[in-house]
Design brief:
alpha+beta, 11-stranded mixed beta sheet, 4-stranded antiparallel beta sheet, 14 helices
């Protein structure tokens, strides 16, 4: 391990524009991965832990989308400076890589894709053999990279952060809403401190659409600039919201610019650095992001950041995963990027906002016409896109709006460059086994699509590299009766199970006249208007969803798998949806089914025995290999997990 500072000089690029945004990289550590063990044809890998330093020209057209950029502090050359933590895993010999940079948008400072694609335990700094799992990404030859983009990430040795300047002297409203799962005395209000105690207002309500009730100022107090307390404590099942004045907003939008400029540097190059040879070998860049990070990618695309400062394509492919149809609050004044919007908490953040689809669509309420790809189409930087969502996103992240009209009445066409893969019957993120039980009513959903995502990554890479057409989209259509109103949902009457009465809706929100154009919020909380209609996936006689892609686990089901799971009584949110999803195993035998009055055939009636089940599971997995939705090398893992789940249900 060593420290080395490497300075980069501006490199003249085509068109007469100097690519100068990445100014320096400070290497903190350069070490071999797994002691230099070879990773297939890619050979040994190395780890670079570093900090990237940027300077951007606030006058360039490419930087005008950054909120408050004209107010940013500047150096002697008139440039805006910032930096970010950087982490790279690359072949020691770059020539042996596969030519693709695989970039993950860090979720709250973490690193998830090694765990996701390598079937490994989660780690923010993978070091051990176990933490690299089956080494899939490395043996495929990908160069892996992460860059901090959130300024408000908690400090930690392995957390990736953005270090951006603030605009001194600017004041404005800040809002935080939150819920608790157990009574607590003190709660955080986020990054921005209260600067005017006299005007701070705390409210409470039960549901999103309820009128907020102002809490008497004498009943709550400011513990410190970023924490408040309430007499008697904050109660589970209630929505608390505080609006207050603060000052000195951080230029959070620099996180978007930093990601753009780093990836452009990796593809276009600059002299005299440990990473400079990448431009000779990195021919493509694919980005992925989970949940909030997937919405960051959608925002990145919508706001025009997929064109570099010199107008070249940044990401050739995007894989936003479990992001639903949302954008996000990542580039406006006083934004706190680590906060997000759920059905119950943060519901009126600027998250699930129009436009939702890639193609142009018209909002019948506002009359506005827009589409996610407008900016990229204008700059001719439209990437290939895979949207991967699960059942939870169709119930809790307005995912149907990706491909239905804003009035909820008809299917939308998809661009040729876009695929949608609805992973039916899955929770928010691939499920884990054995299932758990927490502050929700039913057993959590174990259904996992991690193995399918490996195949999709290779399909994306082949699409970009060779023009090989990827698997067709798999998602439910209104025209086929696969998306319906909740009233038309034919869920079976499983004993002891109650279906939620409403999904999470997206609302028309009014943040003030300068929000869309300048990223300035003047109305806090926003005015809540009409909800966008939202259909949900129809189900079969077992309660499993139609119209999407079924993992091997769901193609040969051991039960009913849902994307919804209401909170339990202790949480106070019994009519709200949590992201764990639910799993209702089938009865083991015919006798057990009859005794329970369960309408679903038993495992005994479906498969006969364990061997019969595994035979059908193998056949389903082999079919998915033919469809290029699963790798043949992963069939043993499918069967191993299937056997464990059978034993779990039949015990």
């Amino acid at each position: 391990m060593f420290a080395l500072r490497i300075f980069l000089l501006a490199a003249a690029m085509s068109g007469g524009v100097a690519f100068s945004a990445v100014k320096a990289i400070h290497i903190v550590e350069r070490t071999d991965v797994l002691d230099g063990a070879p990773m297939g044809k890619a050979g040994p890998y190395e780890r670079l832990v570093a900090k990237a330093y940027f300077e951007i020209d606030p006058k360039l057209p490419a930087n005008q989308a950054i909120s408050d950029i004209q107010l940013a502090p500047r150096n002697a050359e008139g440039m805006v400076e910032f930096s970010a933590d950087l982490y790279v895993l690359k072949p020691r010999d770059s020539a042996k890589g596969n030519g693709t940079l695989f970039f993950e948008v860090s979720n709250r400072g973490g690193k998830g894709m090694v765990s996701l694609y390598n079937s490994a335990p989660a780690s923010k700094d993978p070091r051990t053999k176990a933490q690299f799992g089956d080494k899939f990404l490395l043996e495929q030859g990908f160069t892996l990279a992460w860059l901090g983009w959130e300024f408000d990430v908690a400090d930690g040795p392995d957390n990736l952060k953005l270090y951006a300047p603030a605009v001194k002297g600017i004041t404005g409203p800040v809002r935080t809403n939150f819920t608790v799962t157990k009574r607590t005395d003190k709660e955080s209000i986020g990054h921005y401190p209260i600067t005017d105690e006299a005007t701070a207002v705390l409210t409470v309500r039960k549901r999103v659409t309820d009128k907020p009730v102002v809490i008497d100022r004498a009943k709550w107090k400011i513990v410190d600039p970023t924490h408040i307390s309430l007499d008697g404590g904050f109660e589970p099942g209630k929505i608390y919201e505080i609006v207050h004045q603060s000052k000195d907003p951080v230029l959070a939008g620099l996180g978007l610019a930093g990601m753009r400029d780093f990836v452009a540097f990796m593809k276009q190059g600059a002299p005299a650095t440990l990473l400079s040879d990448q431009a000779r070998y990195i021919k493509r860049a694919i980005a992925t992001g989970q949940s909030q990070s997937g919405r960051f990618l959608r925002t990145f695309l919508y706001q025009g950041f997929n064109a570099s400062e010199n107008g070249k394509m940044v990401f050739d492919g995007l894989i936003p995963t479990i992001a639903g149809a949302g954008l996000g609050g990542f580039n406006h004044r006083f934004v706190q990027p680590t906060r997000t919007g759920f059905a119950y908490s943060g519901f009126t953040l600027p998250v699930d906002q129009f436009p939702f689809s890639d193609t142009d669509e018209t909002d019948s309420v506002t009359g506005m016409t827009d589409g996610l790809l407008r900016a990229a189409s204008k700059s001719k930087t439209v990437p290939k896109i895979f949207y991967v969502n699960g059942a939870c996103e169709y119930w809790g992240r307005v995912a149907p709006l990706l491909h239905v009209t804003p009035d909820g009445k008809a299917d939308q066409p998809l661009p040729e460059t876009t695929r949608i893969y609805f992973m039916t019957g899955t929770p928010h993120g691939s499920g884990s086994f054995p299932p758990g039980k927490g502050s929700w009513q039913y057993t959590s959903n174990p259904n996992s699509y991690k193995l399918n995502q490996k195949a999709l990554l290779l399909a994306m890479n082949a699409w970009i590299k060779d023009g090989t057409t990827p698997p067709e989209s798999r998602y439910p259509r209104i025209a086929k009766g696969e998306l319906v109103s909740i009233a038309a949902l034919h869920f079976p009457k499983i004993p002891g199970v109650t279906v939620p009465t409403r999904p999470r809706f997206a609302y028309h929100l009014d943040f003030g006249p300068e929000f869309a154009s300048k990223g300035i919020i003047s109305i806090e909380p926003p005015r809540i208007g009409k909800a966008f209609p939202l259909p949900v996936p129809q189900v079969d006689e077992d309660g499993n969803e139609l119209g999407g892609f079924r993992t091997p686990e769901l193609a040969v089901p051991l039960g009913t798998y849902t994307g919804w799971n209401p909170g339990d009584a202790a949480s106070g949110a019994t009519d709200e949806i949590v992201g764990t999803g639910s799993w209702f195993p089938f009865p083991g035998t015919k006798a057990a089914r009859i005794a329970a009055k369960d309408p679903r055939p038993s495992l005994e009636e479906r498969y006969g025995n364990r061997e019969g089940y595994l035979a059908k599971l193998r056949a389903a997995a082999e079919e998915q290999v033919r469809q290029r939705m699963l790798l043949e090398s992963d069939i043993p893992a499918v069967l191993e997990r299937g056997g464990k789940e059978w034993d779990y249900v039949m015990k």
